[in-house]
Amino acid sequence: MNFKDYVRVIPDFPQPGIRFKDITTLLKDGPAYRAAIDEIRKLVAHHQIDLIAGPEARGFVIGAPLAYALGVGFVPIRKSGKLPGETIEADYALEYGKDKLSMHKDAIAPGQKVLIADDLLATGGTIQTSINLVRQLGGDVIGAAFLIELSYLQGRDKLDGLDVVSLIQY
Ligand code: 5GP
């Protein structure tokens, strides 16, 4: 399956000059969505994984079904102020804009092997911040999995030493 055919590129969203990769066109196609998650599962299947962590909101759409397919737990990484329990927070900068991400303090037990999942790797800022949060909680980050990688932004260079996998590259 050529997954790229299912992604819609929208020019000048959310700002002039950005060519936004819209994954809703892939998600609404049942066989394509299932096949994409299954392909990502195969790319990470050789790892021992205890938990998947995914940043909101599109990280949930990739991370949660991946966790289900692997039979492991899923922990959410959320924007500040959304999680009800005790949290830790970290600042992050996006390809456009900036924000704070948070996790529950008890989301990860020390030493657990964590794979981080998101829809798209751009500059790597979101994933770097996610990695920092998981490591602060004592988690052992083994890699990061994406539906899409914008290779020309070289985000993977910031994720030194980790196994970075992606299904679609631009
Ligand atoms: P980074 O932090 O790597 O620069 O940006 C990646 C984050 O921004 C991801 O969480 C992703 O959801 C979002 N993002 C940035 N550009 C795009 C895009 O073109 N399409 C989609 N679907 N998400 C994007």
From TrEMBL:
Phosphoprotein as UniProt keyword: no
Pathway given in the UniProt record: Purine metabolism; AMP biosynthesis via salvage pathway; AMP from adenine: step 1/1
Keywords: Cytoplasm, Glycosyltransferase, Purine salvage, Transferase
Localization per record: Cytoplasm
Superkingdom of this protein's organism: Bacteria
Keyword Glycosyltransferase applies: yes
Gene Ontology MF terms in the entry: adenine phosphoribosyltransferase activity
Chief location: cytoplasm
EC number(s) recorded for this UniProt protein: 2.4.2.7
Reaction equations catalysed: AMP + diphosphate = 5-phospho-alpha-D-ribose 1-diphosphate + adenine
Domain named Phosphoribosyltransferase: residues: 36-149
Family assignment from sequence similarity: Belongs to the purine/pyrimidine phosphoribosyltransferase family.
Oligomeric and partner information: Homodimer.
PANTHER family per the UniProt record, alphabetical: ADENINE PHOSPHORIBOSYLTRANSFERASE (PTHR32315:SF3)
HAMAP family noted in UniProt: Aden_phosphoribosyltr
Stated role: Catalyzes a salvage reaction resulting in the formation of AMP, that is energically less costly than de novo synthesis.
Protein name as annotated: Adenine phosphoribosyltransferase
Native organism: Paenibacillus chartarius
